[in-house]
Every structure is written in structure tokens, then in C-alpha cells.
Design brief:
- The protein contains 9 helices and no strands.
- It is mainly α and 255 residues long.
- α3 runs antiparallel to α4.
- The longest helix has 48 residues.
- It is elongated and about 100 Å long.
- The protein starts with a helix and ends with a helix.
- It comes from Streptomyces silvae.
- InterPro entries: DUF4239 (IPR025333).
């Protein structure tokens, strides 16, 4: 059973139960009942729907912001691990050290250029990036240490390459949108209902009431746009950046 079918059944069932109870309750109302003594249920329901929707919006914004922060952190960890590989390779012979650093620079240049565009446009990593990282791994793991100092540096270098691979995998997982379609359905439906409830309160055409209604609608639209913008950590305006790579490898990125 799909999640959309489950959602439809749950919503229809809840609505049917509430309406049934309301109809049965009205049939039992006595003839001398005075509805003026009951608080205005419309205002109460409007307030509660607004509060519930505000909570949902807050949770959605917090979720996509956390995803964006995690994406930026994965970029920082990847860049820092690559920097450690370049720095720790200084104990190796010149030809080995230069080969490792050249391959690291080639990988960084590819990530900042082609792979970043691939994540932005297609929400995926590139095969070329995988190949370049495999070359860095081969440079590190296939070298046989010849001195005690090289032996001491070997395992930390291997660990740093593994950290790069792990951070790159996290970067790839964070490249796409994080909000499921059913959540977007709830957010948009909630926005329509919340804004539509304004008209149940007999809004008039005074400047003050129209201004407040307009500002309320603009606020809802802005918050939905904010969620949409944060939902793709690498693909839209307020997204994760290549700053960690540029800061640590200015010569490789042209920074």
C-alpha cells in the first residue's frame, strides 16, 4: 500500500469521524439550548490550525537547515582530510610526495569545477571524481615505507584517505532534495487552509485588515520558499559552498 493511499484513507477517516460526531451531537440538542452561551468555535479552530501549521513550518525549516549544515560539514571534512594527505606526504621521497600532491590537486580541481556542477544540475557525483580519488588512494596505499618515519606516517595517511572517501559519500547523499513529496503536500495544503481561514472571520476591506491579510500571506509564501531553497543543499541560492576547498587549496582551484 502506497503512502499516498494511506494518507488519503487516514484523512478521509478522520474527517468522517468528526463530521459524524458533529451531526449526531446536533440531533441531540434540546429545543431550549442557547448557542450564544458557547464560545465562538470558528475563532478557536482558526487559531489552533494556525498554531499547528506554525509548528509544522518550524520543524520543516529546522529539518532542511540541519540538512544544509550537514552538507557543508561534509565538504569541510573532505577538504580538511585532503589537506592532511598533502601535508603528511612531506615525509615521503620527492617523487612520491609530488605525485600524491598532484593527484590531490587534480581531484580538488575536479570537485570544485565539474563535480560541483554535476551535483547542482543532476544531484549526483561523477565517475571521474571517483577515478581521481582512487588514484590518490593508490598513491598512498601502494607505496612501501622505507624508513621508520615513513612507516609512522603511512597508516595516518591511509586513514585520511578513508576519511575523504567517507566525506565524499556523505556529500553525494546530501546532493539531492531531502523533503519527501508527502511533506510538501502537507505544507502546501496547510498553507492554503491557513490562508483561506482568513475569510471565515468576515474580513472587511479596510486598509488595516487588508494589509494584515496580505502580510500574512507573504510570510507564508516566504517560509515555503525558504524551505524549498534549503531543500537542495548544493543546488540553490542558499547552498553549501566550495569555500573549504578554495581556502585550503587556492593553487588548485584558482582562488
Amino acid at each position: 500500500m502506497s503512502e499516498w493511499l494511506v494518507l488519503t484513507i487516514a484523512m478521509a477517516s478522520a474527517c468522517a469521524v468528526v463530521l459524524t460526531i458533529a451531526v449526531l451531537s446536533n440531533r441531540r440538542v434540546a429545543e431550549d439550548d442557547d448557542p450564544s452561551e458557547t464560545p465562538d468555535v470558528i475563532e478557536y479552530m482558526t487559531m489552533m490550525i494556525g498554531v499547528v501549521y506554525a509548528i509544522v513550518l518550524g520543524l520543516a525549516i529546522a529539518g532542511v537547515w540541519e540538512g544544509r549544515s550537514a552538507a557543508q560539514e561534509s565538504v569541510r571534512l573532505e577538504a580538511q582530510a585532503l589537506h592532511e594527505v598533502s601535508a603528511r606526504a612531506s615525509v615521503y621521497p620527492v617523487e612520491v610526495r609530488d605525485r600524491i600532491r598532484a593527484d590531490v590537486d587534480a581531484y580538488v580541481a575536479h570537485v570544485v569545477g565539474d563535480e560541483w556542477r554535476s551535483m547542482t544540475d543532476h544531484a549526483s557525483l561523477t565517475d571521474e571524481g571517483t577515478r581521481l580519488l582512487d588514484r590518490v588512494r593508490a598513491d598512498v596505499t601502494e607505496y612501501e615505507p622505507r624508513t621508520d618515519l615513513e612507516g609512522q606516517a603511512y597508516q595516518p595517511l591511509v586513514d585520511q584517505v578513508a576519511a575523504v572517501d567517507d566525506a565524499r559519500g556523505a556529500r553525494g547523499q546530501n546532493a539531492g532534495a531531502t523533503m519527501p513529496g508527502v511533506v510538501w503536500f502537507g505544507l502546501i495544503t496547510g498553507a492554503v487552509v491557513t490562508v483561506g481561514l482568513i475569510f471565515t472571520l468576515q474580513i472587511r476591506r479596510t486598509f488595516r485588515e487588508l494589509l494584515l491579510a496580505g502580510l500574512f500571506s507573504v510570510l507564508i509564501a516566504f517560509l515555503l520558499f525558504l524551505i524549498w531553497d534549503f531543500d537542495a543543499p548544493f543546488g540553490r541560492g542558499i547552498s553549501a559552498t566550495t569555500a573549504p576547498f578554495i581556502d585550503l587549496f587556492p593553487h588548485a582551484t584558482g582562488g
